[in-house]
Amino acid sequence: MSERSDVLTARRTRAQLRPLPTEVRSGGKAADRSRRRPRGGGIGQGAVILVLTAIAVVALFPYLFMFMTSFKTNRQFNDSYWIPTWPLELENYSTAWHQIQPYFITSILVALAAIAGTVALSSLAGFLFARYEFVGRGVLYGMIVMLMMVPPVASLIPMFVLMRDLGLLNTMTVLILPHIASSVVLATILMRTFVAQIPQELFDAARIDGAGGPRMFRSLVLPLSMPIIGTVSLLTVIGVWNDFFWPLLVITEDKLRTIPVGLAFFKGQNATEWGPLFAGYTLASLPLLLLFTFLSKYFLAGVQGGLPGTGK
Predict the structure, then answer these.
(1) CA 20 to 30 Å from 220, out of 42, 158, 271, 294?
(2) How many Å apart are CA 12 and CA 10, to the nearest integer?
(3) Which residues constitute the domain of residue 299?
(4) Domain count, the chain
(5) Cis amide linkage into residue 102, ω under 30° from 0
(6) How far is it, in rounded angstroms, from Cα 79 to Cα 82?
(7) Boundaries of each ABC transmembrane type-1 domain copy (predicted)?
(8) In this predicted model, what pLDDT tens digit does every residue of 182-212 receive, in sequence order?
(9) Nearest to 280 by CA among 292, 269, 290
(10) Distance (Å, rounded) from C-alpha 281 to C-alpha 286?
(11) CA distance 179 to 9
């Protein structure tokens, strides 16, 4: 027993005296390298954040400058061009609002009418193309898609001649119909894609319950299509709010001018009044800002083809 214990003791001693493997001996260096890696990653992440911050500042600076200048008098504008001044000239907003109020109301009415027409036509067309089989469906839908390749400037003169022959110049209708016609193409494509993703089982269950096409459209398609309807509405409002050339071409009465054309005339009438001018620009940008703030989740959900809050 003593000899066996001596052998075991000798083996343990040799094992303790055996040199460590290379991986274990270099463990300190490997640990140092692993500790250094996050440092390099942190530098890269910091550089990305710095670049994104610079891009955001460059993108937002014109709006900040516009907002800052809207509170200045002409003297403050000339003396302190790049920095805020005190006191704030709040009267600029009152002056600007009295000047652009008619244009503001006209733009809102045109936008609401264009949204109603675009949503009504595109939702019906999208439902029919997605859920009904009929002769020529693919050809007709392909022709609608091909309209996306036609530049708006190509239809400008024919549209003007048509509106003139119909006697619609200098009317609210001449502002509404072209926006519906131009917006309904993309809206139909978006609505058709969205409705096609609704599970067929829901439509089968509705048919078993005795629902026809109009009932399915009213009670099933429209409630589920709220995200894409929000997307279409926001795109239509942006188109109406930013359109400058068409209202300038077909409208000569001051009370029917939209906000972009009204601001252009406001600039001509107040070429040296920089505070009210920039206050008018700020007021004109508020509706789009508020709409996107409250409809952003529907806009993103509609673009992604899902329902807000469901993660789908």
Answers:
(1) 294
(2) 5
(3) 91-303
(4) 2
(5) no
(6) 9
(7) 104-295
(8) 899 999 998 998 888 888 888 889 888 888 8
(9) 269
(10) 9
(11) 95
